[in-house]
Structure formats: structure tokens, C-alpha cells
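Page 47, continued from p. 46.
Same chain as before, 108 aa.
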Amino acid sequence: MASRPKTFFALPITKERPAIVIVTQAELVAKRLQQNFSSEGAAHVDPSQRRVVALYDDRATAIFLTDDWTGTSPANRSILVHEMVHHIQNLSGIKYECPMAREKPAYI
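Result:
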């Protein structure tokens, strides 16, 4: 039997799950504004709508999703996967030269 690879997409495997927090759109925007000032965490912004659809908080090790997120569509699930990448980056202590560099693996 083949052994399981130790990493996927150059990210280590972790078993620690993030908290999932459902919030209103207004609460998510407020949290995003707080992150802009602290440079803590990463947020996923839908470029076609220019609205925050989810974000990951490094300190809280939590993914914040809007209360209209259902997880029933591929687009909804991709948002969760994107934020999970940020969770793995955080737990692994991976550092990037800028916030946009941190986003690249999450979009892949």
C-alpha cells in the first residue's frame, strides 16, 4: 500500500480545525476593517461584487462566513476551502512577503 503524502500544495497536514463563525454581512465588513488596521488574518473579497464574503482570523483561528453562506454550491464550498488554506498557513507559521503573496496558494 502506498504511503500517504505528507503535504498537499506545499502545505503541511494539520488535524486542528478552525472555528466556523456565521455572522451578518455588516459584522463581516466590520471585522475586515479591523483586520486592515492590524494586518492580522486574510479576507476573501468577491471581485465581481467587491464585498467581503468570508475571512480568516489568525488570532482566533476562526473562519467567518456570512449568514447567507449555505455550502450547497461549488462556489460556496470554494470559499470555505480558500479560508481553510489560510488556517493551515497560520498554524504552520508560514510567512509571506506581503498579504497578496499569502492569497496565491489559497486561490490555487
